[in-house]
Amino acid sequence: MSNEPVVGNSEVKKLEERVRELERMLGRKTLEAEILREAISKTQTTKQISRPILLPKEVPDEDTSRDELRPEDHIGKVVR
Hints:
mainly alpha; 2 helices; coiled coil; Transposase
């Protein structure tokens, strides 16, 4: 005789249902990850295209007060 424990049919059915449930969850998460990767890819492409348009034409001097700067002067620049 085998040394493996005997498992009842009801326990096997519960475990099989759990496996099916986990497989469905994995499928949904895989699809979600694919959608997010596609969105990130499209966002990065758009970002690369629009970035040169958003950069300020002239970077103000460091001693210029923040009140004198326009909002578009802050784009792409680290504000301290």
